[in-house]
Task: structure prediction
Amino acid sequence: MNARMTMIQALRSAMDVMLERNPDVVVFGQDVGYFGGVFRCTEGLQAKYGKSRVFDAPISEGGIVGAAVGMGAYGLRPVVEIQFADYFYPASDQIVSEAARLRYRSAGDFSAPITVRMPCGGGIYGGQTHSQSPEALFTHVCGIRTVIPSNPYDAKGLLIASIENDDPVIFLEPKRLYNGPFDGHHDRPIVAWSKHPLGEVPEGHYTVPLDTASVFRPGKELTVLTWGTMVFVAEAAAQETGTDAEIIDLRTLWPLDLPTIVASVKKTGRCIVVHEATRTSGFGAELVALVQEHCFYDLEVPVERVTGWDTPYPHSLEWAYFPGPDRVGAAMRRAMEKT
Result:
């Protein structure tokens, strides 16, 4: 059976399914137990499964991830929450030096099947320390997977697939999408997931493969490579400019579904990359390089990036930083005008 769910409810449902299905799954982090998480993604799970399966942890991101690595090495499947992605930095050594390297350094004797959930991105007036999109930092590290859903259906399927995967997974959740799709028009009424087709989610177990992108919007004139909140911004920009854009929602940044990207760019001959993270060394730069490498003779115009700026995420100028539909639409027009 299917039900209408927000992304929060879909993520909770994924953890609920896996806690019930596999006794080795545990959920912990700051305020995820009794309180149910700062965004209520784990609400009710401790009452249902007990304090030994769903529990609170001290405010120590390094300790949380370090404990999860040890649990994973001994056969558990921890799902831990870093309350905001901006706070993962103290856990960097545990993620990079321990979780990502464990299978290699132990010659396959141990692994770290852990899932690290992190709310990310802006659009909620969170300022510089509650709005970052650090996905590119994880894609640079060999041995971990980087996942970022854009809707409730994918969120549940990807989270279940992440928990079941034997690799450590960084699971980034665009918090601006928790309660509804967001097209970048902050001055318009909020749209609820209950009114969107992707808000319909199966109640039981299902997975979305961790290495497949989604053709979110088919098109013939222009390829847009994006993920997370920017999927809906790109959709709005395409509608407002009248561009027949094919929007590729990457869903998993690494491993990357390169065949879907190449097939789309070879079809359209034009490509822009859109992400909320800062421009320099963002994951968009890797995508531009890959498109140039694999589609050079099919490109009609240079690949363009639309991104956040190379500054801290500003509070008072949030919508100047946020790559909204006006900036994305302008890039679409430039791509279509060039020959």
Summary: The first helix runs from residue 7 to 21. DSSP finds twelve helices and 14 strands in the chain.
